[in-house]
Amino acid sequence: MPIHKFRYLSILKEKEGELLAVERLNPSVWGMWNPLIEVLPPAPKQEKPSTNPDRKPRKVKSPGKDLADACRADHTVFLDFEKIATDPDRAQQILIEIEAEGATAVPVVNSASPTRIRSLARGCAQLNGGSCVVRVAYPELSSNVKEWVPELLAESGAKAEQSFLIVDLGELPAGHVRNIAVTLPDLLKRFPALKKWASVTLAATGIPHILDIPPATAERIPRTEWTLFNLVSKDVGALVRRLDFGDYAITNPRLVDFKKHMQVSPKILYTTDSDWIVLKGKSAKRHTWEQTRGMCKNLVGLTEFLGADFSYGDHYITACADGESIATGQGGVWKKVGTNHHITLVARQVASLPGP
Question: In the 8-state DSSP scheme, what is residue 223?
Fold first, then answer.
């Protein structure tokens, strides 16, 4: 992975919509971007097959095959195994699958990583020249990072000069941005040997855990993580070797636990330079997913819409608005569409930032 100022990192979940969004990216995006994928426990077997037209059924699906298919040869993907920490065999199989695709897999470790996950990180570090990823939650910056971070590196057999530090602020409400912008640079000054790391990524999201938006409406949510990055990039950039920007694409860090009784409504999230346009439909059970065609027509008519040629996601929105014969649901389709557009836009946005 080339070393230069400002690169984009998306924290994604190992879900069909997000993996397909990555699979559909223009190859040029990979030159400006890397994914960090949070690996999830295997989903329970579905009674119905996937309705997503991009996913062809497989007779035999090995662990991590869909994830490996999304990775691009000769590029790097960071893998966070925290949610499958009790299943290191599956983690090992995923690493093998990705390496077989010609990509480089770098495990993520944190203060709570169990011994077997750290052992996987050590094995990968031996193969890739001492590289690993350390993920630090924002509250941990006030704790004893001077002690456990060097220990974690040593235990992983990694070197800071070849490794990547991610400072994860999680969900970032608009009212907290200014305070964090003031305190963050001073907290980072306490971090041991900060200048040695190959890169330091500031990651967060303005997407709330629950999008509480009335049906049949459109609202805007500020990209607070982008506001924060621009407020602190000068001060933090002076402390590090390379400063990167990270977010959770169009997803909150916490998974939503859908209940059977919950009403499902179509939602389309469209990223702009400073916010998300969120279009919400009515109950899909009563009004079907065909209502997304009207939602897409409304979106295409906005001045912020970047046109069908901007990304796969934009092309899909245009086709849906034009009434073409494409899938209009379920929610995974619109997660794929919105995520693909988001990564394309933000990767270009970050790459265009002026150098130090």
Answer: -
Which stretches of the chain drop beneath a pLDDT of 50? Answer: 1-4, 47, 58-60, 261
How far apart (Å, rounded) are the C-alpha atoms in residues 43 and 201?
30
Dist CA 216 CA 106 (whole Å): 42
- The one-letter code for the residue type at 345 is L
DSSP element (H, E) containing 149: helix 145-155
Quick one: how far is CA 86 from the chain centroid? 23
Rounded to a whole number, what is the largest CA-CA distance in the chain?
Answer: 59
- According to the model, what pLDDT value does residue 346 have? 98
Pair of tokens at residue 175: 């009212």
DSSP 278-313: EEE-S-HHHH-GGGHHHHHHHHHTSTT---TTS-HH
What CATH code is assigned to 8-44+51-257? 3.20.20
Residue 293 · residue 319 · CB < 8 Å:
no
The domain spans of the chain are 8-44+51-257
Cα separation values, 316 from 21, 32, 53, 137, 201, Å: 12, 23, 12, 36, 31
